[in-house]
Amino acid sequence: MPDSLVAKTVSVFREGYGSARLKADAFAGLTVAIVALPLSMAIAIASGVTPDRGLYTAIVGGFLVSLLGGSRVQIGGPAGAFIVLVAATGARHGLDGLLLATAMSGIMLVAAGYLRLGNYIKFIPYPVTVGFTAGIAVIIFASQLRDLFGLTLSGREPGPIIEKVATLGLAAGTVNWGAVLTAALTIGIILALRKLRPHWPGMLIAVAAASAFVALLQLPAETIGTRFGGIPRGLPSPTFPPFSLEKAAAVFPDAVSFALLGAIESLLSAVVADGMTGRRHRSSMELIAQGIANFCSALFGGICVTGTIARTATNVRAGGTSPVSGMLHSIFLLLFMLLAAPLASYIPLASLAGVLAVVAWNMIEKPAFMALLRSSYGDAVVLLATFIIVVFRELTEGIVIGFALGAVLFIDRMAKSISVGETKPLEALKEENGEKEHPVVADDPDTVIYRISGIFFFGSAATVGTVLDRIADQRRNFILDCSEVPFMDSTAANVIEGTLRKAERTGVRFFITGARSQVRRALRQHDVRPPRVVMRASIQAALESIRSEKSA
What we know:
The chain is mainly α.
């Protein structure tokens, strides 16, 4: 079996797994479980299902994502990105239809993994990912307005955001100030602890404090107990959702949307984890694991599972070293559910809405959003088009249209960048597939030099990024020559910035030589500028700087 289809758990135990790593993974798993406990319930409620189904998802799906996945530190569970799709599917087809669509999406993801389709996710332009993430965040926040203000509605809350805001506006006279105070307290505690005690589990502490606040003052705020009757103490027996060809055909479009978003979200999360750990995930195995996790989550009554960026980052920061931390996070959640289920009845819904309001704010990549707006007219159009369509139309439609606009923009840029007899064909950096290398020999053993030739854009960014990640920490000085790069887009500049961050962590001095004005402008928009990086006109000038510093 090729390595690309081997779970990282197998690789970890082949390397040798001792008590020291188990201790580190246990601490990380407990930390992530504390974060995931309120978040899983909040996402489930926002998705239109009962809070226990969020816990089923994190326990069953999260365990399988870690056990079978292609990332060492990925944490799986219910994600805010799915709230809109899950809520809409449940409203159209009921709970049975939602579970069937989740199971079908799992089968699609397994097939995508075996067909190596994960390799094509890298072709999604950076402005599209930033735009749809921001759009999802806006929708999540809008979905929490009812519980944030404790509004009373006469009928079902509409799904489309314009109708939703209009309906909530008509109910403004029913504001429950107890709910408002509870939500404000929750948000305030989370933000205060993030600043004063960043390593404390702010979300859990905030929810616990808000629950005590409501109970002691006997505020008229709705709780999990009053709306849902509490949560069960344990997992249900696995049962396949009712199946018929007619039902499968009806939910098929939703299953495709689940699979597409699940693939994008999980692989983006794995890429973030790679940047934090210096490792490389196996995209095909990651999709297979996500597929199995979604299928089994549906069997236990859970909703969609995907890799979650916030919980994965928490796992890495807490010291998680292997998939064992993710499996332990699910086991700890199960123990919490078995031992503390009665206490969940006292959690105010306004407090969970406050948690999701903070999550929505954090989801928006604000520096990246503003940088893309300033970088170029084309990138700004792709970003805003994706964002607006996701907010006011539909998530999958936003991704497709954003990608199409990005492709048209690239074609336009290619046409403007190529000139006969002057522009050389694109020569990517050396990679395992045998593509050509453009070598330059340095006379300093502590210095490595690589040259990129041709147009550096989102289609080649992943390939170049793989090589740069591998070589950027091998020497004390790393020179990247861009003299033959006529154009660089925001995705490519973001890749360079990621390589620069890795070089900074490992104490490597980063030089960029021969960059043209457009390339420099793109790099500056992503904070690739002095003093973080040394800019020189040529390779020779960079080498002379290194030699003069050594002789000084």
